[in-house]
Amino acid sequence: MKLNKMINRISEWIIYLLIVAGVLLFILYPYIKIFAEAFTSGSFGITEYLSGNMMLLKNSLFVATLTTVASLFFVLSLTICFLFLSEKVQKIFRIGLLATMVSPPFVTSLAYITLFGRRGFITHDLLQLSYNPYGPQGIIMMQTISFASLNALVLIGMLKNIDTSMIKSARSLGAKSDAVVKDMIIPLLRPGIIVVALISFIRSLADFQTPTIIGGGFRVLASEGYFAVISQGDIHKAALINLTLCLPALIVFFIYNHFEKNVASQSHGQEQGSLALPRKGLFFYGSSFISGVFYLLLILQYVTIVVNAVTVKRMGNFYWSLQPILDTRIYISDTIIRTIVYSLLAGFIGSLLSFLIIYYSQVRHSKLMKGIEMIGTLPYLLPGTFFGLGYLYAFSGEPFSWTGSSMIVIINVIFKQLAFATKAASASVSQVDPTYYKTVHDLGGHTLNEWKDVFFPMTKQGFALTFINGFIATMTTIGSIIFLIRPGQKVLTLVMFDVVQRGLYGVASVIACLIIIICLVVAGLIALIFNLNRRRKRHVSFRTTAK
User: Fold this and answer.
1) 468: how many CB neighbours lie within 10 A of its CB?
2) pLDDT digits (tens, 9 = 90+) for 407-432
3) pLDDT, tens only, 236-276
4) φ, ψ at 160 (rounded to 5°)
5) How far apart are the C-alpha atoms of 181 and 167, rounded to whole Å?
6) What CATH topology corresponds to 1-37+340-489?
7) DSSP secondary-structure letter at 320?
8) What angle do CA 58, 64, 66 make, to 5 degrees?
9) Do residues 402 and 29 make contact, with C-beta atoms less than 8 angstroms apart?
10) Which residues lie across from 400 on neighbouring strands?
11) Range 42-279 classified under CATH 1.10.3720.10
12) Quick one: which H or E segment has residue 18?
């Protein structure tokens, strides 16, 4: 008995120390290295760089600000429209938004070029216009559409936390739909609105793919950081650019952290129920129209990608053809399996790591692990290229010469998703009654027994969702790994990014469709397995009760 207790204790401490060491080595250490490089190496520092490139910073802030405002306009319209829908239509509405989460981040740019480019289907073929799609207007439009879905899902999730008794009371006193939305819903959503606005701002600053593809001669800091490494080989300049991006991102993060706590604390002790409002008033008609336009753009975007994958254009006319699919084979012959394996490993290990961090932080109340959890938010806060550059500095020489290996790529995507995964894990773990843990110890169990009998069985639904998110995030990531992968070890998103830059839009569309299909199939399989296990247990429980 004592030997078994000692083994459990040693195993727990080994796991605990491995988690702490892993986060410090693979998150904090790369950031320390790149900050050191930016401040101590090279012939010029950040102040000299900023003074000579202030226009780049202004461009980045300009695009990020307008993208935030435009995205917020669509997000509020989508959220308000959701209030007026029946529960059945709400599910379809939410599925439509979720579907956009499984596509690569620059699919919108690909569709934009196909539809509105110099030889675009709408501008050139239908309207006979000579339109230049490249520039800040294209970046803002595509970032707005890309960011709106996730932000709308965040606000729609907050609607479930609103106390429905207040809404019912207002309606029983004769309040119209417009008054309920203006005087109650929007004020209650204000912390969430600020959070999604700040998220949009940070994501826009960090986005280098969209400006690279459709920015044309309009330069921003994120795309300049990418070209500094890829075209110029100037890693010091890239470090300074990314450090410049960090300054506004850090300010925004502190504001975000304040309002995010308000969002998290808003749902306690409230009556839950449907918020469906009467379909009347300016807010209903206005939000319905804008939401319809948004969904039309989404449908047009994905129809364009699918059609582009199975057609060719000759003499100004489109013809059905399998040529794009045939042309794609040479680009992805050895890439598909590698991408899926990377994503499965990153999804599972990242979910496991995040749940263990939350266990020690939230269940065991470890102060050290709370600090580790905070460090884990850094990859989410700072640009993905900044995280990738940190790995380039930290693991390309002694004592860790790992750059170019599959291991360092998988490690990077595991720790890149840690911030979101720990938040999802925290929400799942908070629903487990602490009494269960006490019962295990009262019966003579140890930490490993807690994990086996209580913690993971009672949080497996959240674990499955976190695993799915980690898988999809890895399948669609590009920023943090673009500097780490050798040419012969590319994943699907990097191959797609390369062929878009070469103008091979048909091949890029095929790869985009393939990524979306893989994500949907794997997510469906995981959800199916989870539901089958639940049904099987319910069936066994029913039979036992019947006996």
Assistant:
1) 21
2) 999 999 999 988 888 888 888 888 88
3) 777 788 777 777 777 776 776 666 655 555 544 444 455 66
4) -65, -20
5) 10
6) MetI-like fold (1.10.3720)
7) E
8) 100
9) no
10) 397
11) yes
12) helix 2-23
